[in-house]
């Protein structure tokens, strides 16, 4: 595998090349293994929000979340060639990030124990302290939907985001997007059908 630089690891959002937005995880992983930096940048951008959301659920602050994010990205680079089911990349990243959160907690508690007079550590976290499975599955579903929405044509993406945002009513969305109110329904139907096909291709709809 050619070397892939961890550009984008230092910040939680990297800019994605326009021609990689609709690229599948399978293709991005293959391109990363070929050493294509743009593919790595796109992969980091696609999963950065998901990775960052998990430390926050464990109660970490921004600084600790950034450290965990870096650790997960390093692990991803190290394991790129061993990921056998690219469609399960989101689940792999969620599991890896959760375990990194536990490892970070263990390390932090050991450091705190060494700095206390009696040196007695607190009870260390175990697998039972991982986020509940249904919460992890919800994170995965949210990521898949977010990725699919980002793959929509720009007009559909804006429409879907507006319609599912609490910030707009149906009429306000029509005005915001400069769409006649009587055309919004048919346009929404077409855009949701495109979204359904993307989710189906990702294996999340039958």
Note down, in words, how this protein is organized.
- The chain has two domains: about 1-130, no CATH class; about 150-205.
- About 65% of the residues lie in helices and about 0% in strands.
- The chain contains eight helices and no strands.
- α1 crosses α2 (about 35-55), α2 packs antiparallel against α5 (about 135-150) and α6 (about 155-165) packs across α8 (about 180-200).
- The longest helix has 26 residues, at about 90-115.
- The protein is globular, with a radius of gyration of 20 Å.
Topology of helices and strands:
Elements: H1 25-33, H2 37-57, H3 62-79, H4 89-114, H5 133-150, H6 154-163, H7 170-176, H8 181-201
Helix pairs in contact: 1-2, 2-3, 2-4, 2-5, 3-4, 4-5, 6-8
Distance between the termini: 35 Å
Number of domains: 2
Number of discrete helical segments: 8
Question: How much is the radius of gyration in Å?
Answer: 20 Å
Number of strands: 0
Helix proportion of residues, in percent?
A: 55-70%
**In terms of per-residue confidence, which ranges show pLDDT below 50 for 5 or more consecutive residues?**
7-20
| Form type | globular
Key attributes of the depicted protein:
206 residues, mainly alpha, 2 domains, 8 helices, 63% helix
Brief write-up:
The chain has eight helices and no strands. The chain is mostly helical and 206 residues long. The two termini are 35 Å apart.
């Amino acid at each position: 595998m050619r070397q892939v630089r961890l550009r984008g690891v230092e910040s939680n959002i990297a800019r994605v090349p326009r021609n990689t937005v609709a690229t599948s995880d399978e293709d991005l992983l293959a391109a990363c293994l070929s050493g294509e930096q743009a593919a790595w940048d796109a992969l980091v951008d696609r999963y950065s929000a998901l990775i960052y959301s998990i430390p926050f659920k464990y109660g970490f602050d921004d600084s600790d979340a950034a450290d965990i994010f870096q650790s997960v990205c390093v692990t991803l680079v190290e394991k790129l060639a061993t990921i056998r089911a690219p469609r399960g990349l989101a689940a792999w990243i969620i599991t890896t990030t959760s375990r990194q959160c536990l490892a970070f907690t263990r390390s932090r508690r050991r450091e705190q124990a060494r700095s206390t007079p009696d040196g007695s550590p607190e009870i260390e976290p175990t697998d039972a302290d991982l986020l509940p499975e249904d919460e992890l599955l919800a994170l995965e579903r949210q990521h898949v939907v977010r990725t699919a929405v980002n793959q929509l044509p720009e007009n559909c993406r804006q429409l879907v985001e507006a319609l599912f945002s609490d910030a707009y009513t149906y009429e306000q969305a029509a005005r915001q997007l400069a769409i006649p109110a009587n055309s919004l329904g048919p346009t929404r139907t077409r855009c949701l059908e495109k979204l359904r096909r993307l989710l189906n291709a990702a294996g999340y709809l039958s």
